[in-house]
Design goal:
Layout lengths: L5 H13 L2 H8 L3 H15 L4 E3 L4 E3 L1 H24 L8 E7 L1 H8 L3 H7 L3 E7 L6 H4 L3 E5 L7 E9 L1 E5 L1 H7 L14 E3 L4 H5 L16 E3 L2 H9 L5 E4 H10 L3 E2 L9 E8 L6 H15 L7
Parallel strand pairs: 3-4, 3-5, 8-9
Antiparallel strand pairs: 1-2, 5-12, 6-12, 7-10, 7-11
């Protein structure tokens, strides 16, 4: 069996995560030349090029992508083995990789992180903000925050809270197109759609007690709440958004709540992690911290 140099493997992972030989060298406190030698030695041992180098960027080859995923899993298993040995002391350390939806992560999760990191000073945190479903296992994510129903049964989900939603439009839009007061009137309006879910799921709350559900279509769709809020404030149409993204605009009168007698169904908020028998202490600590933090947030439902 081939003998791999631990420092070379660590250097490879760091180059991939930083996107640069120089940044990897700085992070590992070695020279750039040393990083280059380690990667070259690793490629020689494997007999495959892992990183395609150009003057402007580094790209993983197909072999490099596979090797990165497998090597990352190995290091995660080593981290977990280390924590098992230390289980009596529950040391919370290492790197915690978090993924969240962009708007929720920016407005709700990021402001909490300084307090969390102060509690666990030996922990390093990386936060990925993006409006797509991250592949936790393939991308090395420890825990992801997800809003809405979960389709991936391979993940372990912990309910954190529920997020209230509001149906709203701008005063200018309502002056031009009128204010809908009955569910069946919505089909005649310009609808702004959150594209990560279906139109049926997005508007099902409005027709819970109706026998006839009209066909609905959208004027504009986006996978980001901030983009939808901006379009709504510009008078493009009617949308349904999480309350935390529109509460200030409603207070100032830039947006108006409609269908007050029909409340959109709150969306569950989950912390999800890969399905493993052992959950690292850093992940357990972060999930418990989220539960406590959002329990104390009056703008979110527990």
């Amino acid at each position: 069996m081939k003998e791999y140099d631990f420092s070379a493997l660590r250097s490879f992972i760091t180059v991939v995560e930083t996107g640069s030989f120089a940044k990897a060298a700085e992070q590992l406190d070695v020279s750039t030349a040393a990083i280059s030698r380690r990667i070259a030695a690793l490629e020689g041992l494997l007999g495959s090029q892992l990183i395609a180098r150009t003057t402007r960027r580094l790209d993983l080859t197909d072999a490099g992508k596979l090797f990165y995923e497998d090597t990352l899993n190995i290091f995660q298993m080593l981290d977990e083995a280390d924590e098992r040995v230390r289980v009596g002391r529950e040391t919370v350390k290492g790197i915690l990789r978090i993924a969240t939806p962009l708007s929720f992560g920016y407005e709700k999760v990021a402001p909490l992180l300084p307090k969390f990191m102060k509690q666990y000073p030996a922990l390093k945190v990386t936060l990925r903000l993006e409006d797509r479903l991250t592949d936790l296992q393939a991308e090395g994510i420890d825990v992801a925050v997800r809003i809405g129903a979960l389709a991936d049964s391979s993940l372990v989900a912990t309910k954190i809270t529920s997020i209230a939603k509001i149906c709203c439009a701008s005063p200018d839009y309502l002056r031009l197109h009128g204010r809908p007061t009955q569910p069946n009137e919505i089909a005649a309006h310009h609808l702004l759609h959150y594209s990560n879910i279906s139109m049926k799921d997005e508007w099902s709350w409005l027709f819970e007690h109706s026998t006839a559900v009209p066909d609905l279509d959208y004027t504009f769709a986006a996978n980001n709440a901030e983009a939808l809020r901006a379009m709504t404030m510009q008078g493009v149409g009617i949308t349904v958004l999480p309350e935390f993204t529109v509460e200030d605009a409603i207070k100032t009168g830039s947006l108006e709540q409609i269908f007050k007698d029909f409340s959109p169904t709150p969306s569950p908020l989950y912390a999800v992690r890969p399905s493993r028998q052992f959950t690292p202490a850093r992940v357990r600590a972060f999930i418990a911290f989220l539960q406590q933090s959002f329990m104390d947030d009056p703008k979110l439902e527990t």
